[in-house]
Amino acid sequence: MERERESERDYCRGTPSINTSSPSSSSSSSSSSPPSLSLSLSLSLSRIGERARMAPRSAIAATFPYPERFQAAAAYAGIGRDPNSASTAAIARLPDDARLKLQWLYHQAKFGPYAAQKPNTRKPAEESEWTSGDQPEKMLSAEAMRLFVEVLEANDPEWYFKVPESIIKPLLDALVNPETIAAQNENLLETKDEDAIKEGFDSVKIFDTWTVLSTSGRKPKPRYKHGATILQDKMYIFGGCYSGRYLSNLQVLDLKSLTWSEIEAKTQSPGSATTVPVAPCAGHSLITWGRKILSIGGHSKDYSDTVTVKEFDPQTCTWANIKTCGKPPISRSGQSVTLIGTTLVICKENPSMNDVHILDLETMTWDEINTIGTPPFPRSDHTAACHCERYLLIFGGGSRSTCFNDLHVLDLETRKWSIPKQVGITPSPRTGHAGVRIGEYWFIVGGGNNNDGVSETLCFDMSNLAWSVVTTVQGRMPLASEGLSIVFTTYKGKEFLVSFGGYSGNYSNEVHVLKASYKSDIPPPITNGIISSTALTMYNSPNGSILNSEIKHDQDRKVEQTTTDKVHLSIPNITQKESSGVIGAVKTDIDGLKVALKTEQLLTRQLQQALALTHRTIANLTEELKVVVDGLAPERSRLFELEANVAELQQKLQPMEGFQKAVEFLRQKKAA
Fold it and tell me: What is the C-alpha separation between 282 and 221, in angstroms, rounded?
């Protein structure tokens, strides 16, 4: 393992940084571009070829863009070559399932959906893979190329270093051949949008549908029960569990470049400047706090009787154990950690589920909350979220034999548990799921029910207490697994859910994204507000009713009295019957104003999102223009240098003309 890491570091140092995006990924935006784009593409391909020639010969395949990288991978694997050489090709050394996947993807990339007959084999594993039906029947050719390279890299991580010279040279010559470049430019201008390689979050066109996100760099090891958080447009993945072993590595996904990288982090020893390796852990929670990351709880080999708090500093790449005051909670698994203002609220498995602790992040002091009301039944692996900076919502979880689908609310001011009345669909029981809040909406993803994975992604409207199904996945996908992580990020004014990992019979290291639409199937029965009297009643009433008759009667009486007083001030000597009519008219006007206000707020939000999108687009275009200008500067300097070299050579060739004449004269004289 250490040798592989050292080889990877040497390769990263020796290989120049090259944008490996496929040329066809620009076709959607270049179909109507000016002729200067053709020159820019030619220069880009030439620059790629030149850098590839300068790269170490052993790693040169890693510098190729698509489809050349796919062609190098297919030739190395031995697919599409002479059948007599298949036994000596790399594909013969791969497992049966990997070999079949590569054959499927190669055929999909070159010819379309795979329609060949069942292979003539007696191997049960190969027949099982063939008849599983899990392979996609239709996908873009470019996506099949990328998946082909990823499958080969997963089974043969060092294939870049093993590609023969006979495969490299033709592909390299094609990259810098002017005729090839001209043909590729012509193809780019004719390529349709649906055939282009779509990079990053721009590839997600449909709302409320999970999509696999293509990434570059070395992927993390598959895992579940890890921690995930967002800090400065980067998703940090720490720890987790794989095949019964705790993990200690810290992986980072840059959400702008969609590139994975690993941080060689260390733990700073208490009271000294020395560092020690990071202890593996799983079942912990990652929370972003300022410009640092907190890890709370979890299991590790370094057993602790109480919950530990660690802090990671991205500037120094070091973990440090945080010293806390007060009485920390007992160390257990399956806790939920929720950031509310400057405090962390931790709910842990307890016989009475009355184990609620608060950690003040400013003083690092623990405090235990003594709650009243009926607490939730003992459980673990639930999710929690905060609403209005006051209400802690607990959903799902499980015990040893039961999974739950109930929702409990803890009022952090009155410290009272309640079960509010909810509308919409009834969520299915689940445990080990993940949740993330975006505004007033709480998204619940994955989980299991002791029999199978839960396939639907839920959305809970916390203002209206309404459940709805966002989408449903098919089969044993990572989105229907336990121990996955979910975070959210913003891209071009749109909010995206980002999921990673999980276990559903197989460990996953895939990244899935979902573009949320913020729409609920249930019409809002109440108005949105910070903490309105209606919200107070919803969360705090024992039976969950939105308004009971006594409160409503008392409020109507107060409103009627206040409104009547105001009317008497402006209209004296008004009768009681007339005042009732005026009150009704005023209430109608108020309702109309509320509807108008809500409409204006919605329009304002849409305009703000459009304005933010415009600003981001301008910033991206400006950055792209700067990159183009910066790229032209070296080419211009090189052109001047070439012109100077040509002039110098012409001066050196002038004396050669007289020398040639003298030689010719001597030849004629000798011949005579």
Answer: 14
pLDDT tens-digit profile of 49-63?
444 444 444 455 666
- ∠ CA 240-229-283 to the nearest 5 degrees? 30
CA 349 to chain centre: 30
Amino acid at 621: L
In contact, 565 and 572? CB cutoff 8 Å:
no
CA distance 266 to 249: 10
**Cα–Cα distance, 415 to 372 (Å, whole number):** 6
d(CA 248, CA 625): 41
**Alpha-carbon distance 144 to 322, whole Å?**
47
The contacts of residue 362 (CB under 8 Å, 6+ apart) are 342
Length of the chain, in residues: 672
CA 113 to chain centre: 28
Q: Which DSSP symbol is given to 231?
A: S
Structural tokens at position 557: 């009486």
How far is the first Cα of the chain from the last one, in angstroms, to the nearest whole number? Answer: 79
Answer whether 64's CB lies under 8 Å from 49's CB. no
Instruction: Look at strands 416-418 and 372-373 and give their pairing.
Output: parallel
d(CA 31, CA 192): 8
Distance between CA 357 and CA 349 in Å, rounded? 12
Tens digit of pLDDT for each residue in 620-671? 888 888 888 888 888 888 888 888 888 888 888 878 877 888 888 888 888 8
Number of Cβ atoms within 10 Å of the Cβ of 468: 18
Token pair for 321: 């154990």
Collect all residues with Cβ–Cβ distance below 8 Å to 1 and sequence separation of at least 6: none
What phi and psi, each to the nearest 5 degrees, are found at residue 436? -150, 140
- SS3 (DSSP) at 580: helix
Return the CATH class of domain 211-539. mainly beta
C-alpha to C-alpha distances, 207 to 181, 493, 513, nearest whole angstrom: 37, 14, 10
CA distance 12 to 361: 39
